[in-house]
TrEMBL record:
Belongs to the L6 tetraspanin family. This is Transmembrane 4 L6 family member 4. It holds the Pfam family L6_membrane. It comes from Labeo rohita. It is found in: Membrane. Keywords: Membrane, Transmembrane, Transmembrane helix. Its main location: membrane. The keyword Membrane applies. It comes from the Eukaryota. The keyword Zinc does not apply. The lineage of its organism: Eukaryota, Metazoa, Chordata, Craniata, Vertebrata.
Length: 198
């Protein structure tokens, strides 16, 4: 498989992953599936927009570049099409690195949020949500989950969505790393790849 065809497959895979990340981050604005009156009751890491910006918007640009790489020859280079493909492949490396950086941001935010735990109400009469857990202790001790009285099943909601962002971000980093290698091959061997219709 030539570098352009492989890049197109990566682009096709990255687009739905970016959409999943955006949707997951938006859902985190509704802890436990509830609409809260005060945005201060939402977990702080949600506002860092790791899924919307890092693994979402930033990832769309590399995905679109990868999709168009097969047909992009950069108008050739002094009439030499394979030279133009080398430049196109080199450009895809830069976009892959940018995408990996965005996904890494999302992964870091997700790790911090999972370790920190969600904001929740610890009593039925509580007005403002707080962080009831010490760093990470609720992950190994599920009995602590009883401290959270709401909104909804906020701990499961928090963990599920941030884990989706974490795993999806790691997959995106892996796919972008593949494109860096693929782009290097295309940059170095652009002329031989162009022979197979890349």
């Amino acid at each position: 498989m030539c570098t352009g065809s492989f890049a197109k497959c990566l682009g096709i895979t990255l687009l739905p992953l970016a959409v999943i990340c955006v949707i997951s981050n938006i859902m985190l604005f509704f802890p436990g599936g509830k609409v809260l009156d005060d945005s201060g009751d939402i977990t702080e890491e949600v506002f860092y927009l790791g899924g919307i910006l890092g693994s979402g918007v930033v990832m769309i640009f590399p995905a679109l570049v990868f999709l168009g790489l097969k047909n992009n020859d950069c108008c050739g280079c002094c009439g030499n099409e394979s030279c133009g493909k080398c430049f196109a492949n080199f450009g895809s490396i830069l976009f892959a690195l940018a995408g990996a950086a965005g996904a890494a941001y999302s992964v870091i935010v997700s790790c911090v949020a999972i370790n920190h735990g969600p904001k929740c109400f610890t009593t039925d009469e509580q007005i403002n949500a707080t962080y009831p857990f010490a760093e990470g202790n609720y992950l190994s001790n599920r009995t602590l989950w009883d401290y959270c009285k709401g909104p909804g099943d906020v701990i499961t909601w928090h963990l599920t969505l941030f884990c989706i962002l974490l795993v999806t971000g790691l997959v995106q980093i892996g796919l972008c790393a593949f494109q860096v290698i693929n782009g290097l091959i295309g940059t170095i061997c652009g002329s031989c790849c162009s022979c197979c219709g890349d």
